[in-house]
Amino acid sequence: MRPIILAGHERPVTQVIYNREGDLLFTAARDRSPMVWRAQQGGARLGTFEGHGGAIISIDVTADSKYLITGSADNSARMWEVNGGKQVFQWDFKCPVSSVSISPDEKHVAFATSMLMKQEPEIHIMKFSNDPSTLEAEKVQSLKGPKVTMSRALWTGAGDHIICGAEDGTVRKFDVKSGEEIACVKEHAGGINDLQIAPNKVHFITASADKTAKLWDLEDMSILKTFKTERPVNSAAISPLMDHIVLGGGQDASQVTTTTTQERFDSRFYHKIYETEIGKVGGHFGPINAVAFSPDGKQYTSGGEESVVRMHNLDEEYFTKNYN
Amino acid sequence: MVDSKVDEWADIEDDEYQLPPREETKTADGLKKVTEYSISVDGFLKKTITTTRENKVVHKVSKGAAERRGWKRFGQCANAPPGPEQGITAVSKDTVLIEWVTQIDEEEEENEDDTLEQAKQKALKELRMLQMQQRMKERNAGGVVTTQIGGEPAKPNWAQAMSMKAQNANEDTAAPKNPNIWVPTSLRGNQAAAAAEGPGSGGYQRDDSATVRVSNISAKTTEGDLHELFAPFGAVKRVYLSRDRKTKESKDFAFVAFQKISDAQKCIQTLNGRPYDHLILQVEWAKPSEQRNPSTMQRPK
């Protein structure tokens, strides 16, 4: 396969997501401009969202692909019209927003704020509406748990729970209505860098700095599978089509220039059930910070510390190969 | 010639010079040719001709996705022409393949299947080792007639040696407390006997009699090249090219073991002093390993 290289960003990529139909790819990086690309038409850039004053850490898009919400280190989260790139709403916080997640019914949105300036990390549940003219910055619930930055806080199930992964290695589950912490499991020895919910909505996967990724059961918070690598894992995604997961990672970014070993930065494919490594795809020149599968499972995208996003249309061989 | 209205003479050229416009032509066979001009980093006029073939492929997309196809570009790329932007979106020049890592698993499976075969091989290897050990003992005993092993008179008698080996082997199996623990060959069996025989004996030793040492070979010579070079003289048992342990670079000498001493003799006579790869080869008999320090590894270095 010949990957499509998207070189629009100027700083390390932080998150890549597809919209529901998989025709648009949204990328966020530590520069100030989140971008949207046409994933099925050769990766042409559709537009950039201008207005943020700091690094973009997390993004989420509505199911109808009309609005994008971005969380930034400039202590704000903004809502944008995807067609035209106009900012339609803004939420202000006291510290950087580390995670954005829209609830399944699209009536609420969860923002996780990180620990900075003596502010306690918190998940803010705010009212959300698909009509920005009626939208107000109204806080519905506040969830407090870990005393460290939460890398991801996502809605699960029917939208009554929030699951979050934190830098102390804990995974917590909150009941949104009561605001209580239902479960707190510490299975990772290192911080959790990414948490993604499986396309089947019953599992989720965590990527950790302890060089492993773990597949969890959403209901009882038990670990089903563990995928071991030799490098810190920055991101993990579950294929909607095959029994595969893809891991992105690599050396700690702060050590890349100080060590002499020739480092390879591969996206690594693991078998979801056998926990064995199937294959790897190279190409990046820095650690991979974000990976995502397209909703049809025929494409996957990785974003690297070197600011490059690579879109891979998987070969026929990948789908026909016998993995047993 | 300088116009008085212009304040800075250096600006003249820059202002007057304009890039030729972008041209787009369609050829008869369905190819689109786009000619663009730009100034390269070193100040030269750069002409880029992009030839593309447009294929119409029908994709079924959802209503929403079809609507989104008509959306106009915005933000940084609002004024960009349709299609991938130059310098932003590019198809990788290299083909990237998924490097499958299935071989290891297959090997493991094979190993599991062949445990019996493996055990057999291991037993055979051990037997061969014992025989070799015995032969060494026999040779030492034969060379120095006065040496006595464990009070027994040393005779170059194979049958007796076999029985002796069996005796030794019995002692061997009786001595170690745990058979899983590896015991150096020099410590196995009758230790007093081993000590009496002196250093270099009792352990596994390679028969170096038909081995030649080749020195002054060029750094890029490989084991394969040496095989090619020495094979015409007779059956080559082993080629050992000395390499640096860390860098894996050749240390410019090698050992070649022949099956027959006569082949090795012939090789030395023919090859010594001959040029090979811009250097003059030096071929001589390898010094037997007994003469080297027994504490070091018994492999030629």
Automatic annotation (TrEMBL), chain A:
Keywords: Cytoplasm, Initiation factor, Protein biosynthesis, Repeat, WD repeat
PROSITE patterns, alphabetized: WD_REPEATS_1 (PS00678), WD_REPEATS_2 (PS50082), WD_REPEATS_REGION (PS50294)
Record-level GO cellular component terms: eukaryotic 43S preinitiation complex; eukaryotic 48S preinitiation complex; eukaryotic translation initiation factor 3 complex, eIF3m
UniProt keyword Protein biosynthesis present: yes
GO biological process: one example: formation of cytoplasmic translation initiation complex
Subcellular compartments: Cytoplasm
Gene3D superfamilies found in the cross-reference section: YVTN repeat-like/Quinoprotein amine dehydrogenase
WD repeat intervals: 6-37, 49-90, 185-226, 281-322
Pfam family for this entry, one: EIF3I
InterPro entries, alphabetized: eIF3i, WD40/YVTN_repeat-like_dom_sf, WD40_PAC1, WD40_repeat_CS, WD40_repeat_dom_sf, WD40_rpt
A single MF term (Gene Ontology): translation initiation factor activity
Subunit and partners: Component of the eukaryotic translation initiation factor 3 (eIF-3) complex.
Function statement: Component of the eukaryotic translation initiation factor 3 (eIF-3) complex, which is involved in protein synthesis of a specialized repertoire of mRNAs and, together with other initiation factors, stimulates binding of mRNA and methionyl-tRNAi to the 40S ribosome. The eIF-3 complex specifically targets and initiates translation of a subset of mRNAs involved in cell proliferation.
Assigned protein family: Belongs to the WD repeat STRAP family. Belongs to the eIF-3 subunit I family.
Protein name: Eukaryotic translation initiation factor 3 subunit I
Organism expressing this protein natively: Rhodosorus marinus
TrEMBL record, chain B:
Pfam families listed in its UniProt record: eIF3g, RRM_1
Family affiliation: Belongs to the eIF-3 subunit G family.
Keyword match Transcription: no
One MF term in the entry's GO annotations: translation initiation factor activity
Subcellular location: Cytoplasm
Domain RRM: from-to ranges: 210-288
Ranges in coiled-coil conformation: 106-133
Subunit and interaction comment: Component of the eukaryotic translation initiation factor 3 (eIF-3) complex.
GO biological process, alphabetically ordered: formation of cytoplasmic translation initiation complex
UniProt keyword annotation of RNA-binding present: yes
Protein name as catalogued: Eukaryotic translation initiation factor 3 subunit G
Xref: HAMAP family: eIF3g
UniProt keyword terms in alphabetical order: Coiled coil, Cytoplasm, Initiation factor, Protein biosynthesis, RNA-binding
Role summary: RNA-binding component of the eukaryotic translation initiation factor 3 (eIF-3) complex, which is involved in protein synthesis of a specialized repertoire of mRNAs and, together with other initiation factors, stimulates binding of mRNA and methionyl-tRNAi to the 40S ribosome. The eIF-3 complex specifically targets and initiates translation of a subset of mRNAs involved in cell proliferation. This subunit can bind 18S rRNA.
UniProt GO cellular component terms: eukaryotic 43S preinitiation complex; eukaryotic 48S preinitiation complex; eukaryotic translation initiation factor 3 complex
Origin: domain of life: Eukaryota
InterPro entries the record matches: eIF3_g (IPR017334), eIF3g_N (IPR024675), eIF3G_RRM (IPR034240), Nucleotide-bd_a/b_plait_sf (IPR012677), RBD_domain_sf (IPR035979), RRM_dom (IPR000504)
